[in-house]
Design brief:
Layout lengths: L1 H12 L4 H10 L3 H14 L5 H4 L8 H18 L1
Helix pairs in contact: 2-3, 3-5
Length: 80
Protein backbone atom coordinates (compact mmCIF):
# COMPACT_ATOMS: atom_id res chain seq x y z
CA UNK A 1 0.00 0.00 0.00
CA UNK A 2 2.80 2.42 0.88
CA UNK A 3 4.50 1.66 -2.43
CA UNK A 4 1.44 2.76 -4.37
CA UNK A 5 1.04 5.89 -2.24
CA UNK A 6 4.66 6.82 -2.84
CA UNK A 7 4.28 6.38 -6.60
CA UNK A 8 1.10 8.43 -6.64
CA UNK A 9 2.87 11.20 -4.73
CA UNK A 10 5.73 11.21 -7.23
CA UNK A 11 3.27 11.36 -10.13
CA UNK A 12 1.54 14.32 -8.45
CA UNK A 13 4.87 16.12 -8.21
CA UNK A 14 5.57 15.46 -11.86
CA UNK A 15 8.84 16.08 -13.61
CA UNK A 16 10.34 17.96 -10.65
CA UNK A 17 10.53 14.61 -8.83
CA UNK A 18 13.01 13.15 -11.34
CA UNK A 19 16.22 14.41 -9.62
CA UNK A 20 15.07 12.91 -6.32
CA UNK A 21 14.19 9.64 -8.01
CA UNK A 22 17.64 9.60 -9.63
CA UNK A 23 19.26 10.09 -6.22
CA UNK A 24 17.19 7.24 -4.78
CA UNK A 25 18.20 5.00 -7.69
CA UNK A 26 21.86 5.53 -6.85
CA UNK A 27 21.40 3.98 -3.41
CA UNK A 28 18.59 1.48 -4.04
CA UNK A 29 19.75 -2.00 -3.13
CA UNK A 30 16.55 -3.97 -3.71
CA UNK A 31 15.80 -4.80 -7.36
CA UNK A 32 12.08 -4.20 -6.90
CA UNK A 33 12.78 -0.69 -5.66
CA UNK A 34 15.09 -0.02 -8.60
CA UNK A 35 12.51 -1.24 -11.10
CA UNK A 36 9.73 0.82 -9.48
CA UNK A 37 11.90 3.94 -9.51
CA UNK A 38 12.86 3.35 -13.14
CA UNK A 39 9.21 3.08 -14.08
CA UNK A 40 8.59 6.44 -12.42
CA UNK A 41 11.44 8.02 -14.39
CA UNK A 42 9.96 6.54 -17.56
CA UNK A 43 6.60 8.15 -16.91
CA UNK A 44 7.84 11.48 -15.55
CA UNK A 45 11.08 12.02 -17.44
CA UNK A 46 11.92 13.12 -20.94
CA UNK A 47 14.73 12.31 -23.38
CA UNK A 48 17.17 14.36 -21.29
CA UNK A 49 16.65 11.86 -18.46
CA UNK A 50 17.61 8.78 -20.45
CA UNK A 51 21.12 9.11 -19.03
CA UNK A 52 19.67 8.38 -15.59
CA UNK A 53 18.24 5.09 -16.84
CA UNK A 54 21.05 3.87 -19.10
CA UNK A 55 23.30 2.36 -16.39
CA UNK A 56 20.43 0.09 -15.34
CA UNK A 57 20.21 -1.47 -18.81
CA UNK A 58 23.12 -3.64 -17.61
CA UNK A 59 21.77 -4.43 -14.14
CA UNK A 60 22.19 -7.91 -12.69
CA UNK A 61 18.41 -8.33 -12.33
CA UNK A 62 16.18 -8.98 -15.37
CA UNK A 63 13.28 -7.05 -13.82
CA UNK A 64 15.43 -3.94 -13.57
CA UNK A 65 16.69 -4.35 -17.14
CA UNK A 66 13.09 -4.61 -18.41
CA UNK A 67 12.05 -1.53 -16.41
CA UNK A 68 15.03 0.44 -17.73
CA UNK A 69 14.31 -0.66 -21.30
CA UNK A 70 10.65 0.29 -21.03
CA UNK A 71 11.48 3.63 -19.42
CA UNK A 72 13.96 4.43 -22.18
CA UNK A 73 11.47 3.57 -24.92
CA UNK A 74 8.73 5.60 -23.23
CA UNK A 75 10.91 8.69 -22.94
CA UNK A 76 12.15 8.35 -26.54
CA UNK A 77 8.56 8.07 -27.83
CA UNK A 78 7.59 11.14 -25.88
CA UNK A 79 10.57 13.03 -27.30
CA UNK A 80 9.62 12.44 -30.92
Amino acid sequence: KQRMQAQEYLFELGRVAVPGIAAALNVAIDSRHRSDLLQCVGYLGNVDDITIVEPFLKDRDDRVIRAATNATLRMKRRGQ
